[in-house]
């Protein structure tokens, strides 16, 4: 039987660390194609039949005991390849959901193979039952159940298929080249995302996946490396001038970031190489 639930969320509900935005099941999943407009995380589990998922220039066959994990705002497409493709799904978000998913290493969209698909399916059914009751307390209960679903998914994942690190870095190359050329200018996440023609959130995910750091941590490292070269090029340029040349309007902030990276101030760093 087809089921579909979209809970009405209050402002207070959306302050929860994680909350359900939709859940349901289809006896036959139809063709879905999205350009990146979907704002939530998704888990779509195959119950019967087979389908195909296209995401991040990869193609995956999704069959029983497998499913699709999709991150927000990532273009994707999936469709049946058998006469019947039965699935169930949950979509979710939260006030700190990105940090939670990152800590659990759920950062790549792709296929997940399960060791205990039946148990996870029962948990999704229970989640839908709570949504069907539509009690005032159901949002909190569903949040609790959702966390259990996510932990179960992490526990029972055999592997997550995704792009190799080399492929991810290759995808990042346009923005890495941009930072290398314009590190001395004011940079925003919006400008960095424009170099990749993707959303700001997906830009952050790409940096985490391929380099293990956030975009502006990378920018800081580039700027500090440039500053170190200037500090050692000559001892006639002041620290204040070097700060401005590598993109820092306020020298005090530059000194703080430099010390965080190098464990010494710029002045001491220079003295280590100049007598």
Automatic annotation (TrEMBL):
Domain HTH araC/xylS-type as annotated: residue spans: 173-272
Assigned keywords, A-Z: DNA-binding, Transcription, Transcription regulation
Record GO terms (molecular function): DNA-binding transcription factor activity; sequence-specific DNA binding
SUPFAM superfamilies linked: Homeodomain-like (SSF46689), Regulatory protein AraC (SSF51215)
InterPro entries linked: AraC-bd (IPR003313), Homeodomain-like_sf (IPR009057), HTH-like (IPR037923), HTH_AraC (IPR018060), HTH_AraC-typ_CS (IPR018062), Tscrpt_reg_AraC-type_HTH (IPR020449)
Domain of life: Bacteria
Protein's UniProt name: XylS/AraC transcriptional regulator
Source organism: Priestia megaterium (strain DSM 319 / IMG 1521)
Highest classification ranks of the organism: Bacteria, Bacillati, Bacillota, Bacilli, Bacillales
């Amino acid at each position: 039987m087809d089921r579909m639930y979209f809970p009405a969320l209050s402002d207070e509900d959306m302050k929860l660390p994680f909350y359900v935005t939709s859940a349901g099941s289809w006896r036959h999943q139809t063709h879905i194609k999205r350009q990146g407009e979907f704002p939530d995380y998704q888990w779509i589990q195959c119950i019967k039949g087979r389908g195909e998922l296209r995401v991040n220039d990869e193609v995956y066959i999704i069959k029983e005991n497998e499913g699709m994990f999709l991150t927000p705002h990532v273009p994707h497409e999936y469709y049946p390849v058998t006469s019947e493709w039965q699935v169930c799904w949950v979509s979710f978000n939260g006030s700190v959901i990105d940090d939670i998913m990152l800590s659990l290493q759920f950062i790549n969209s792709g296929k997940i193979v399960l060791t205990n698909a039946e148990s996870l399916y029962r948990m999704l059914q229970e989640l839908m039952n709570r949504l069907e009751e539509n009690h005032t307390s159901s949002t909190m209960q569903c949040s609790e159940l959702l966390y259990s679903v996510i932990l179960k998914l992490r526990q029972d994942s055999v592997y997550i298929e995704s792009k190799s690190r080399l492929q991810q870095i290759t995808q990042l190359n346009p923005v890495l080249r941009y930072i290398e050329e314009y590190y001395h200018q004011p940079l925003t996440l919006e400008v960095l995302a424009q170099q990749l023609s993707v959303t700001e959130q997906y830009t952050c995910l790409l940096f985490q996946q391929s380099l293990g750091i956030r975009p502006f941590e990378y920018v800081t490292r580039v700027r500090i490396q440039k500053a170190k070269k200037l500090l050692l090029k000559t001892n006639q340029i002041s620290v204040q001038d070097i700060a401005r040349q590598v993109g820092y309007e306020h020298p005090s902030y530059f000194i703080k970031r430099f010390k965080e990276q190098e464990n010494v101030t710029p002045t001491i760093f220079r003295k280590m190489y100049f007598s």
